[in-house]
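Hey, I'm writing a tutorial for new members on how sequence and structure tokens pair up, and I'd like a real worked example in the thread rather than a made-up one. If someone can provide the structure for the chain below, I'll link this post from the tutorial.
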Amino acid sequence: MATIFILVASSRGQEDTGATALRQGQAAYRAGRFAEAAGYLRIARFSSLENPPLYLQVLARLALAEDAAGQPEARDTTLDRFRETERM
């Protein structure tokens, strides 16, 4: 029983971290802090791996932030991940 509680608590913490990172990334992007936004969105990306629709949304936002931050190689890698995930 304790193991189940730990797993549920861990999962909820991951969701909270991912949701918080996504909100922070969106706010940083709107404020024009594109490199900072990309950092937050990378955290959100890992937290959203098990939710494909959210993962695609995060990847799209991350690619935009990386492009705006002048990170073309990172943007291209993110877009490749987006295309791979979309094909599944």
